[in-house]
Specification:
This protein has 162 residues and is an alpha/beta fold. The chain is 43% helix and 18% strand. The chain binds 4'-phosphopantetheine.
Length: 162
Amino acid sequence: MKDVIAIYPGSFDPVTNGHLDLIDRGTQIFDQLIVAVLVNSEKAPLFPLEERIAMLKEFTAQHDNVRIETFGGLLVDYAKQVNAKAILRGIRAISDYEYELQMALMNRKLNPELETVFMMPAVSYSYVSSRLVKEIARLGGSVTGLVPKAVEERLRSKVNGK
Ligand code: PNS
């Protein structure tokens, strides 16, 4: 049988324990998982692209079937380029569902052969998002347990302007 390649796309600004939990789950059902970091997002990122990639590489090094890549343009075009059969997305709560459903159906319209697969992270990460993690760090709160220790340290030096 052919290897099933899936893409896990996102901004990963920064990677959280929720993302890593989803990557672990994705590696169990797909033969290859490409974590694809969006280049040129409209949002101004806190972490430069290279740093986001370095962090993802560090925390996924234990998986032989994970690759960290970047992509620009349409996700469906990138999927075709890397021969991916599926897009992996995480759904934490009903509030994610509407946006994710819209994207999944739009991607299906653009390429009916590409499936979107939704997975739920562990309940303990169901409230974790990169956006909230950045906000808490900026305002001096603790993000312990929400992101890897090394991300916590990088966040601290970023918000302290070091
Ligand atoms: O986790 P994020 O940061 O919300 O990821 C959003 C992402 C990267 C999956 C989405 O913005 C995307 O796929 N962008 C690529 C451009 C594209 O294909 N847009 C049409 C989506 S229907």
